[in-house]
From TrEMBL:
Pfam families: TrmK (PF04816). One of its GO terms (biological process) is methylation. The lineage of its organism: Bacteria, Bacillati, Bacillota, Bacilli, Lactobacillales. This is tRNA (Adenine-N(1))-methyltransferase. Coiled coil: none annotated. Keywords: Methyltransferase, Transferase. It comes from the Bacteria. It comes from Vagococcus zengguangii. InterPro entries: SAM-dependent_MTases_sf (IPR029063), TrmK (IPR006901).
Length: 232
């Protein structure tokens, strides 16, 4: 993967970035995504944010080697703290992290005034998708699109959300599977949840063998097993 050829996962993320957006890519690593977006005339400009010095330096080197310093600003800071009001960001991408960590980045960004609520959020959590959906719903975001894909024997979900002025209150089951993914289903969706079903069954068996059983937790796991069995 490089700025000329993205991974399948990042290519799918890129497809949800609006035309001529000003993008903030948080946890940008080598800045491949913003560089690809700019080189392919998809965006006006970008901020590549990194909290770790090694990836930050890699991103700086790539942007400099492409002569894109005027179009892609590489910044070292925690989460959305890389942003300034004058940036005029219209889309934020956060990829390759757990859903809880992405949620926490957004919470901190909002608390510090770096998240206005006007940006499109394009989020690719590796795990913990329901936690992220729950926060988006509580904050008045509308989930516009979802996608699921497999790459290198790993399954990834993508969640696209905006504050549109409309609100949909999803129940826990819908937040668990995703309002779009749970309806569309498909081969990769079935594969993911077959794997998850086996994990939940193992967890349940272990809990039932324990000397002290948390009955509420057992009930929760049984409920999720039931949901998965019904959906696949």
């Amino acid at each position: 993967m490089n700025e000329q050829k993205l991974s399948k996962r990042l290519e799918r993320v890129a497809s949800f970035v609006p035309k001529d957006a000003i993008v903030a890519d948080i946890g940008s690593d080598h800045a491949y995504l913003p560089a690809w977006l700019y080189l392919n005339h998809k965006i006006k400009k970008a901020i590549a944010g990194e909290v770790v010095e090694g990836p930050y330096n890699s991103a700086k080197s790539l942007v400099a080697s492409l002569g894109l310093e005027e179009h892609i600003s590489v910044r070292l800071a925690d989460g959305l703290e890389v942003l300034k009001a004058e940036d005029g960001v219209t889309a934020i991408t956060i990829c390759g992290m757990g859903g809880t960590l992405i949620r926490d980045i957004l919470i901190r960004g909002k608390a510090k005034g770096h998240l206005s609520g006007k940006e499109r959020l394009i989020l690719q959590p590796n795990v913990g998708e329901p936690t992220l959906r729950r926060w988006l719903q509580a904050e008045g975001y509308q989930i516009l699109r979802e996608d699921i894909l497999e790459e290198d024997e790993k399954i990834y979900e993508i969640i696209v959300a905006e504050k549109t002025g409309e609100t949909t209150n999803y129940d826990e089951r819908t937040l668990f599977f995703g309002p779009f993914l749970g309806e569309q289903k498909g081969e990769v969706f079935a594969q993911k949840w077959q794997q998850q079903l086996e994990k939940y069954r193992y967890i349940l068996a272990s809990m039932e063998k324990a000397e002290q059983v948390d009955s509420a937790k057992v009930t929760e796991v049984k409920e999720k097993i039931s949901w998965i069995e019904e959906v696949i």
